[in-house]
Design goal:
mainly alpha, single chain, about 0% strand, about 65% helix, about 150 residues
Length: about 150
């Protein structure tokens, strides 16, 4: 069963059997999301993480920051990586995959990264999956750059 394998993989990380360095995409995404979370919770009134992140992504300051960053090759490449790969909601696999239809939409990009983050923290990603590392790495790149731009 996939859930048991994922649980064993993460237990091995927790007990020191497998070391994920601080530059591992999973660690980078979680740290970047916590920074982003601090910004959006202090700047929104929505209830719940998803609604607050989406509300923040629609604010002019965030839309402008995303637009400025889209002119930089590393940010644009990370967003393009995400846009090429639909992501499932691991808690509702029968739901429509989350996709980025417009790379210029901060709200779509943030909603997509929110789903990647949810899948990671709710046990839907495993450290040995190349695809999971790539999605988390690109997501971390985007959120890190966005937070730096907003600070």
């Amino acid at each position: 069963m996939r859930a048991r394998r994922i649980a064993r993989d993460w237990l091995s990380v927790a007990t020191g059997g497998v070391a994920l360095g601080h530059n591992h995409p999973f660690h980078r995404l979680i740290a970047a999301w916590i920074a982003f979370n601090a910004l959006y919770y202090s700047n929104t009134t929505a209830n719940g993480d998803k609604a607050a992140a989406q509300e923040y992504a629609r604010q002019p300051e965030v839309r402008r920051a995303h637009s400025r960053l889209m002119t930089t090759p590393p940010y644009r490449a990370s967003v393009a990586t995400l846009a090429r790969t639909p992501v499932l909601n691991m808690k509702r696999p029968s739901a429509q995959p989350v996709q980025i239809a417009s790379q210029n939409s901060a709200a779509q990009v943030i909603t997509y990264i929110y789903q990647v983050r949810c899948n990671l923290v709710h046990g839907g990603k495993t450290p040995d999956s190349r695809r999971d590392r790539a999605l988390c790495g690109a997501s971390a790149n985007v959120i890190t750059a966005l937070v730096e731009e907003l600070l």
